[in-house]
Structure formats: structure tokens, C-alpha cells
Write a structure and sequence with these properties.
Elements (H helix, E strand, L loop, with lengths): L1 H6 L13 H19 L7 H16 L7 H29 L2 H15 L2 H16 L3 H8 L12 H48 L11 H24 L3 H11 L8 H12 L2 E8 L2 E9 L6 H32 L2
Antiparallel strand pairs: 1-2
Helix pairs in contact: 2-5, 2-12, 3-4, 3-8, 4-5, 4-8, 5-8, 6-7, 6-8, 6-12, 7-8, 8-9, 8-11, 8-12, 9-10, 9-11, 10-11
Length: 334
């Protein structure tokens, strides 16, 4: 809270620190979430589209071979990551520190709105659940294909619902709680850094021949930045559903999952909802047998909405905790 307060520009002599300074960052978090709820993600001229194109160009310039030399391409991938993430984060950090606090506060809010994807996730979830509930499996497959990397052309209704619930739970951590966590620690620049790192992991963090070495740094750095928020997300899912069942699934099943962060998140979320996730899935033409997560029956269309409701309740819980932390900080340092 102290670091983020300094970054809001409160030290400016022209704009002295207001008495409610400890509450400004929590209020900015609430405003950013409401802005995301109201506007969602930009439908045109999204900055991440340009960022993704720049990332593709950077890969083309720096990567050598596919997969290329293990050490050489790992170092090139790290350099590419630093060149893409460090300058914009440093720029907004300096801007937040230099601007008078009203302008800095507005910038923090805009940065959180940019980093959040809660409303977009809800829109995608509804686009899958509605046709699936109506029996339109083709439309549901097409919609789930927009948010998962597996082959969706031959999914059954149960598998379509399973893919959607898995994506909602995992993206709750990646697109929502991770951004809120880093915003609470470092304000808008922290949320921006997390979103850019997560985007590069989505572009480069695959273990195919092209990216297994070049994307190594992006994948590891995303794991590192997501380490704490993923576990807090898993705990949130547990607290807001069935805690005993969620914690048992987390403890028993998460270590077997390939991703160190997705495992706890999806195991706890599946246990909280009382559904069974994981199992066979087709990636790039190959069947991958994944460990089972959760317990109970396979998810149905209604469980997609239940998963999204779990994420949304978690957002309000986190905002309440961030606000409470600001109040405590203000009382202690009054």
C-alpha cells in the first residue's frame, strides 16, 4: 500500500496528499472493476492486438531456428520479453510517479481496466452456455474454440461444458485475480506488467518445436508472477464454495497437473463446484490424457454459469479485502 501510494503522485507540492490517501488505491481498484463491467475490453483498436503483432515481429527478428539452440534461443526469448515488457511498464511507472495525484489516479484506473478481463470472460462463458443449453452443440463448440487451445471440432456436449468450466476457472486467475493482486501491490504498473507477461506466455509458452526454447522465459516468468495470485485464487474458490472438498482436491490432485499454477486453481475450483474436470483432450492432433481434477459428475451447461459466478463473487471478496486493507493502513498511520 505504501509503494502504490507513492506511485500515485502524492508527493507533488502542487497537489498535497489528501487525508483519504490510503483509500485512493482501493477506490481505484473498485473503479477499474466497474469500468471493466461497464465497458468490457475494447472491441476495436485493442492495444494488445498491436502488442501481439509487435511480439510476433520480435520473435521473427530474434529467434534462430525451430527449436534452435536450447541456450541461445532461451536467452533470445528472455531478451525479447524484456524489450517488450520493461519499456511500457517503466513508462507508466514514471508517469504515475510524476503526474499530480488526480491524473495519476485516473491512469491507475485505466491501467487496471486494461489489465482486467472479467467482463470479456463472462461474455465468452455466456456465448458457450446459451447454445449448449439450447442443444446447439455446433455453436457451443465454435464459441468454446475461441477461448481454449484444444481441438473442439469433435467435442461432446459434456466435453464442451468441461472445456468451458476449465477455461473460466483458469482464466479467473490469469485474467482477473492476477491483475487485482499485482494492482494491490504495485498499482497500475503492476497490473500492466502481469497482463503483458500473461499475453507473451499465451503467445510463446508452448512446448512445440517453434517455441519450446524461445518461449521458455515467457512461460517461467508468467509462472513466477502467477505463483501467489494463483494460490490465492484457489483459496478464494474454496472459501466461496465447498471448502473441505475444494481443499482436499487441491492437496491431492494439483501436484499431478502439468502447470504449477493452473493445477491448484482448477483442482480447487472443480472441488468447490463438485464437478470432474481433466481427462482426455486433443491438442494439435494429439490426444493428451490429463489427470482428473475435482469430484462428482461431468459439468453441464449450467455449471459454466456456476463457475463464472464463483469468479464474480471472488472479485467482490477481493475488493472488500483491498478496501479493508486501505482502511487499516489509514488508521495505523493516522
Amino acid at each position: 500500500m505504501a509503494i502504490a501510494s507513492k506511485m500515485l503522485g502524492f508527493s507533488s507540492p502542487d497537489y498535497p496528499m489528501p487525508s483519504a490517501a490510503p483509500l485512493l488505491l482501493p477506490l481505484a481498484a473498485i473503479a477499474g472493476v466497474l469500468l471493466d463491467r461497464l465497458l468490457g475490453e475494447p472491441r476495436r483498436w485493442h492495444p494488445l492486438v498491436g502488442f501481439g503483432r509487435l511480439g510476433g515481429w520480435m520473435e521473427g527478428v530474434l529467434r534462430r531456428g525451430a527449436p534452435g539452440h536450447p541456450l541461445g534461443n532461451r536467452l533470445r526469448g528472455l531478451v525479447a520479453w524484456l524489450l517488450l515488457v520493461a519499456p511500457p511498464v517503466a513508462l507508466v511507472w514514471l508517469a504515475c510517479a510524476a503526474l499530480p495525484w488526480p491524473a495519476a489516479l485516473a491512469l491507475h484506473i485505466l491501467l487496471l481496466w486494461f489489465a482486467l478481463g472479467a467482463q470479456s470472460l463472462a461474455d465468452h462463458a455466456r456465448a458457450i452456455a446459451a447454445p449448449l443449453a439450447a442443444g446447439d452443440l455446433v455453436a457451443a463448440r465454435r464459441a468454446v474454440g475461441c477461448i481454449v487451445s484444444r481441438d473442439t471440432s469433435s467435442l461432446s456436449a459434456d466435453d464442451t461444458a468441461k472445456a468451458a468450466v476449465e477455461s473460466v476457472l483458469e482464466n479467473g486467475s490469469d485474467a482477473v485475480f492476477g491483475a487485482l493482486f499485482w494492482f494491490a501491490l504495485l498499482g497500475g504498473p503492476g497490473a500492466l506488467a502481469f497482463r503483458l507477461a500473461n499475453t507473451l506466455d499465451a503467445m510463446w509458452g508452448y512446448k512445440d518445436a517453434r517455441r519450446i526454447h524461445f518461449g521458455w522465459a515467457a512461460a517461467r516468468l508468467d509462472d513466477l508472477l502467477g505463483l501467489a495470485p494463483a494460490r490465492l485464487t484457489a483459496l478464494t474458490y474454496a472459501l466461496l464454495g465447498s471448502p473441505r472438498r475444494a481443499l482436499a482436491c487441491w492437496r491431492a490432485q494439483a501436484p499431478a497437473w502439468g502447470s504449477p499454477n493452473a493445477g491448484p486453481v482448477m483442482a480447487a475450483g472443480a472441488g468447490s463446484l463438485g464437478v470432474c474436470l481433466g481427462g482426455a483432450a486433443i491438442y494439435h492432433g494429439q490426444v493428451e490424457q490429463r489427470p482428473d481434477l475435482g469430484c462428482g459428475a461431468a459439468p453441464a451447461a449450467a455449471d459454466i454459469g456456476r463457475a463464472m459466478a464463483l469468479v464474480q463473487r471472488g472479485v467482490w471478496l477481493w475488493l472488500g479485502l483491498i478496501l479493508a486493507a486501505g482502511l487499516v493502513w489509514g488508521v495505523v498511520h493516522a
